[in-house]
């Protein structure tokens, strides 16, 4: 019967690559929906201790809710996948990902270069700022009052906020607490004088507690989904779904529902997401510079840079093929990556004078970790380049660059070179003769 139907079907002739790609995508989606109940489950690592992203119930800590949990369920439903949540604690997040305990981590995971080196981030889905909450409020008048040896500051061990605490309060006595859910309890019990959290979790802590004082935000941090390094296809599909979900309002609805605010930044638009990916790439450059110095390698390695340009051009061609669209001109793609390489050199040179990086005892390996991480970020950059709208306004691109290129802060000239290359890349191609 199936063969008979196949012989009789007379659909429209699919002449263009876009039409063929659309049909293939539709058939794959239908196949996923039909077989989803029997498919290998999507294993999502989550902590269950970080409101409003992932919270375990009082009676069953394996029963999760929160923004990232709702996001995971929405993606799994859209793709016809079964979902299985795997609980992790923050100090073991990286180990769990590398050891394949789960396919991806969704728990308000902050984009950090150390994590980029061992996995691949999705497009960012939320933005937060770290804050300090102190008690009693009349003891601390300004944030500088916290940075004293006699002040005990509690923070969730192993997470991004531990790095924030070390960076912003080096003179204070830091108390590492193994469960984020216990940090507020320690503050209220008087075991610590202050705690580090973020501006999305803080409102729940401050509610009905009049003896607390809040300082900050002191950072601007992106939250994204952290996937295993070997999950390239899953990452590409997830990013496509995030772009669609931002465009159709799904992400905005989930943010408003779980963050209790209607003005959360919309991060999964192509231009903003592209700038964030470039920022993530630049954030790795201080590690690259330090690794090169320890291996007695120069900052500029022309043969390696030529390989990066070739791989970038191929990644963009492949991304355009997957989307069924015409790729941007290869020359424009190469010009953008030349600008990224030159900005990266600037950041590397600046980092070699930074005692923080040059004194690091443990460092991601250049060949086995940092260079593969840059290639993974390059794949996401390629996917976003082919998703950009045509003829972007230069002022708009420069505004996005100023806002998003903040981790390594390239020079004005380097930032403008990146912006101009993106503008050039979105210009319509000249018609063939």
CATH class of the largest domain: Alpha Beta
CATH topology of the largest domain: D-Maltodextrin-Binding Protein, domain 2
Strand segment tally: 15
Rg computed from alpha carbons, rounded to a whole number of angstroms: 23 Å
- CATH superfamily annotation of the largest domain: Periplasmic binding protein-like II
How are the strands of the biggest sheet laid out side by side?
A: 5-1-6-15-7
Separation, N- and C-terminal Cα atoms: 49 Å
Q: Sum up the overall morphology in one term.
A: globular
The number of distinct helices, counting runs of at least 4 residues, comes to 18
Number of domains: 3
Secondary-structure content class: alpha/beta
State mean pLDDT (0 to 100 scale): 90
Q: Report the uncertain regions.
A: 1-38
| Helical proportion, percent range | 40-55%
In the CATH hierarchy, the architecture of the largest domain is 3-Layer(aba) Sandwich
Q: What is the strand content? A: 5-15%
The description of the largest β-sheet is: 5 strands, mixed
């Amino acid at each position: 019967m199936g063969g008979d139907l196949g012989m009789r079907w007379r659909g429209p002739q699919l002449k263009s690559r876009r039409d063929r790609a659309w049909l293939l995508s539709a058939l794959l989606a239908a196949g996923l929906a039909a077989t989803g109940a029997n498919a290998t489950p999507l294993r999502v690592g989550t902590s269950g201790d970080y409101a409003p992203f992932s919270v375990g119930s009082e009676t069953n800590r394996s029963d999760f809710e929160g923004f990232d949990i709702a996001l995971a369920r929405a993606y799994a439903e859209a793709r016809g996948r079964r979902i299985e949540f795997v609980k992790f604690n923050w100090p073991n997040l990286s180990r769990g990902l590398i050891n394949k305990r789960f396919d991806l981590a969704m728990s308000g995971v902050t984009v950090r270069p150390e994590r980029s080196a061992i996995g691949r981030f999705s497009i960012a889905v939320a933005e937060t700022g770290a804050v300090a909450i102190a008690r009693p409020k009349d003891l601390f008048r300004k944030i500088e009052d916290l940075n004293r040896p006699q002040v005990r500051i509690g923070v969730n061990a192993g997470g991004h906020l531990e790095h924030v605490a070390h960076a912003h309060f080096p003179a204070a006595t830091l108390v590492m607490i193994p469960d984020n859910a216990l940090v507020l309890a320690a503050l209220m019990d008087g075991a610590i004088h202050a705690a580090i959290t973020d501006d999305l979790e803080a409102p729940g802590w401050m509610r009905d507690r009049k003896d607390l004082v809040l300082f900050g935000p002191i950072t601007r941090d992106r939250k994204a989904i952290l996937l295993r390094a070997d999950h390239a296809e899953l990452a590409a599909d997830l990013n496509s779904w995030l772009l669609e979900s931002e465009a159709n309002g799904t992400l905005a609805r989930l943010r408003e529902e779980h963050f209790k605010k209607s003005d959360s930044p919309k991060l999964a638009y192509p231009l903003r997401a592209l700038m964030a990916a470039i920022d993530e790439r630049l954030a790795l450059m201080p590690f690259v510079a330090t690794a090169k110095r320890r291996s007695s390698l120069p900052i500029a390695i022309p043969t390696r840079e030529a390989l990066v340009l070739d791989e970038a051009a191929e990644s963009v061609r492949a991304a355009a093929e997957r989307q069924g669209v015409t790729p941007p001109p290869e020359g424009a793609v190469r010009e953008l990556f030349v600008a990224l390489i030159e900005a990266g050199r600037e950041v590397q040179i600046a980092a070699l004078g930074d005692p923080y990086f040059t004194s690091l005892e443990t460092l991601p390996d250049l060949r086995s970790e940092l260079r593969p991480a840059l290639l993974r970020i390059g794949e996401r950059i390629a996917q976003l380049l082919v998703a950009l709208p045509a003829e972007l306004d230069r002022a708009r691109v420069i505004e996005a660059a100023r806002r998003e290129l903040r981790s390594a802060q390239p020079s004005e000239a380097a930032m403008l070179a990146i912006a101009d290359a993106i503008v050039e890349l979105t210009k319509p191609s000249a018609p063939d003769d």
